[in-house]
Design goal:
Elements: H1 20-23, H2 51-55, H3 78-84, H4 88-102, H5 105-117, H6 125-137, H7 141-153, H8 161-173, H9 177-189, H10 197-209, H11 213-225, H12 233-245, H13 249-261, H14 269-281, H15 285-296, H16 301-316, H17 322-330, H18 333-347
Helix pairs in contact: 3-4, 4-5, 5-6, 6-7, 7-8, 8-9, 9-10, 10-11, 11-12, 12-13, 13-14, 14-15, 15-16, 16-18
């Protein structure tokens, strides 16, 4: 079973309103593109930095960055501060000292991050895995997650799916929402674990409640279809709203459709169009197509021109629409030329 996702099917409908029921439907899990896995976040340091780290405040300076000086605030973490400023060699030196002197798991996680991403040192996935492993064994949930993703991706031939699943589970148990989301994907995939939709839904809920927009969008599809949870359009739409507020483009499109149709939420055409326009500017062909349909049907010349522009843009991305093709063909030669010129400017293509 592939991962569930929304597929709206407005193309081919005579009007937007006639497609209301189709818009909010889900396809079966035959879609080839799964939700994107979350990426490890840079390791954040503990609230208080060890005294030993403060003594190392003046590193061997990186060529493009000034040496870090000891701050007045003893709670400032020098390793993470250097990392945030892009002083990766400084961060590496300070983290190495802290890991050696104090067995600090946060410093070990930082070293893994630096090695994995070639920041201040040459990329070395084996060393990254080693540092992540040491930090994970000392209970650092970010290291557990980073190690799991390294094992899953098999970067540097470090792959081990079973070990990755174990570390994802451990990180999720410690409350890491990214780990919970990616573990849910494994339960959906059914290869590492037996497929368990109810368990996947539970994990998505953990990540969604923590504000993970990908999890919110995925869980919305579960509630729409009643997959692993009791079907609830209202809960699905609330999750779509939350994910759209966090700039999840797929959620923006689906929430806009719900707003336009008044499905699970009060009807609000103006808000729907604003969301579709936002998603269109983020290069969502589906949003561009839906926005084009709305604008072309309006009795406003400027809106119709904009709608024809978005139709042309969406069509170049493979989102054709016979109804909009007809609208473009029926436009005056002058309006057609304006729409095509506007689409070219958006796409950055020459005349």
């Amino acid at each position: 079973m592939k991962i569930l996702r929304f597929l709206t099917i407005l193309a081919g409908c005579a009007t937007w309103a006639s497609c209301a029921s189709a818009q909010m439907s889900l396809t079966p899990p035959s879609v080839q593109t799964p939700p994107k896995a979350s990426k490890p976040a840079p390791p954040k340091a503990p609230a208080k930095a060890p005294v030993a780290a403060k003594k190392q405040a003046t590193p061997s300076a990186a060529p493009a960055a000034p040496a870090a000086s000891a701050p007045d605030d003893p709670n400032v973490d020098l390793v993470y501060g250097a990392y945030q400023r892009g002083q990766y060699k400084t961060a590496f030196d300070l983290a190495s000292k802290r890991a050696q002197d104090n067995n600090d798991p946060k410093a070990m996680t930082m070293l893994g991050e630096l090695y994995a991403n070639a920041m201040g040192v040459k990329r070395d996935y084996a060393k990254a895995a080693e540092w992540y492993q040491r930090a994970a064994e000392r209970g650092d949930r970010e290291a557990m997650f980073a190690l799991a993703m390294l094992r899953l991706s098999d970067r540097g031939k470090t792959g081990n799916r079973d070990e990755a699943a174990k570390w994802l589970a451990s990180s999720a148990k410690l409350g890491n929402p990214k780990a919970a989301y990616n573990l849910a994907l494994l339960y959906l995939d059914g290869q590492t674990f037996p497929q368990d939709l109810k368990r996947a839904a539970e994990l998505l809920r953990v990540a969604a409640d923590a504000g993970n927009p990908e999890a919110q969008y995925a869980l919305a599809t579960f509630y729409k279809e009643g997959t692993g949870v009791e079907k609830s359009i209202d809960k699905a739409v609330r999750l779509l709203q939350a994910a759209s507020l966090a700039d999840n483009v797929d959620a923006e499109v689906e929430y806009a459709i719900a707003l336009y149709n008044g499905t699970g939420t009060p009807k609000n055409e103006a808000a729907a169009v604003a969301l579709l326009r936002k998603a269109s500017k983020q290069n969502s062909p589906i949003a561009q197509n839906r926005l084009a349909r709305v604008l072309v049907m309006r009795n406003d010349a400027a809106d119709r021109l904009e709608g024809l522009k978005w139709h042309i843009v969406a069509k170049t991305a493979g989102k054709g629409d016979l109804m909009l093709d007809e609208a473009l063909a029926q436009a005056s030669p002058e309006d057609r030329a304006k729409a095509q010129d506007a689409a070219r400017r958006w796409l950055g293509t020459p005349k």
